[in-house]
């Protein structure tokens, strides 16, 4: 893993250079504003073996801000796990809003489902169990879904992000947003060949590199690479 304390003077502007600063940010600006039910879900998830997969609370706060700014009403999530980002979404939608949530792991979703109920937002959540590609292809079959979604959050199998992109660009409305998560991939994108990287980081790295290149060249979208958490690339559909 690369150090986030690299003092290279080549002047990246990221201020978040230390764990202490991250902790400061969480304690000052994130935790005090985190809805109680999200905190409970986060704490419950932290006892689960794959808890590292969960969306971080600062990223959750960012997603909630985006959704509110956009007045998002119809959204899609690809990759739910125990539902931290899903609950952030459901809490941000109006009462007649909907989030369709796709994941192959129903058991993980069921860990978080009681918190969705407790938050009083279960009526906004449509969880669909199964491979996301099938769920997306099913949505595409119905023409009324084309250009229907205000916001799509993609946080599942990284090797398929580009395959998802080909499809999701049809589902998001013009002016709507697709957000791809983990696009800075633990800093590994700039690792040298000799750097020791966890196996899964190395395995998916080329897919993320390819994704980032492709999104940067895709004239159908405006993009912004936001270095929050593990990096999130916002893609606003232009045409
Ligand atoms: N957004 C979640 C959160 O806020 O906690 C984290 C999602 S986690 C990083 C990735 C999820 O993608 C896992 O729950 C996994 O089951 C799911 N996933 C992986 N491959 C998938 C596929 N082909 N179809 C559907 N879900 C998949
Ligand atoms: Ca993620």
From TrEMBL:
<dbReference type="Pfam" id="PF01596">
    <property type="entry name" value="Methyltransf_3"/>
</dbReference>
<keyword id="KW-0489">Methyltransferase</keyword>
<dbReference type="InterPro" id="IPR050362">
    <property type="entry name" value="Cation-dep_OMT"/>
</dbReference>
<dbReference type="InterPro" id="IPR002935">
    <property type="entry name" value="SAM_O-MeTrfase"/>
</dbReference>
<keyword id="KW-0949">S-adenosyl-L-methionine</keyword>
<protein>
    <recommendedName>
        <fullName>Caffeoyl-CoA O-methyltransferase</fullName>
    </recommendedName>
</protein>
<comment type="similarity">
    <text>Belongs to the class I-like SAM-binding methyltransferase superfamily. Cation-dependent O-methyltransferase family.</text>
</comment>
<dbReference type="InterPro" id="IPR029063">
    <property type="entry name" value="SAM-dependent_MTases_sf"/>
</dbReference>
<keyword id="KW-0808">Transferase</keyword>
């Amino acid at each position: 893993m690369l150090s986030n304390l690299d003092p290279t003077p080549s002047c990246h502007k990221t201020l978040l250079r230390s764990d202490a600063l991250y902790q400061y940010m969480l304690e000052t600006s994130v935790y005090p504003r985190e809805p109680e039910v999200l905190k409970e879900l986060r704490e419950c998830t932290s006892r689960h073996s794959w808890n590292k997969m969960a969306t971080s609370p600062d990223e959750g706060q960012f997603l909630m801000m985006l959704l509110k700014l956009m007045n998002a009403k119809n959204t899609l999530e690809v990759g739910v796990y125990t539902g931290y980002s899903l609950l952030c979404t459901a809490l941000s939608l109006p009462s007649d809003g909907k989030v369709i949530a796709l994941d192959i792991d129903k058991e993980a979703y069921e860990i978080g489902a009681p918190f969705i109920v407790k938050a009083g937002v279960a009526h906004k959540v449509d969880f669909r169990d199964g491979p996301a590609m099938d769920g997306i292809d099913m949505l595409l079959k119905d023409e009324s879904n084309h250009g229907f979604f205000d916001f799509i959050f993609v946080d599942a199998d990284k090797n398929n992000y580009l395959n998802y992109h080909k499809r999701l660009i049809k589902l998001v409305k013009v002016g709507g947003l697709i957000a791809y998560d983990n696009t800075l991939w633990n800093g590994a994108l700039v690792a040298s060949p000799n750097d020791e990287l966890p196996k899964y980081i190395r395995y998916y790295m080329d897919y993320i590199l390819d994704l980032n290149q492709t999104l940067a060249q895709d004239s159908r979208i405006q993009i912004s690479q936001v270095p929050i958490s593990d990096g999130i690339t916002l893609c606003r559909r232009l045409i």
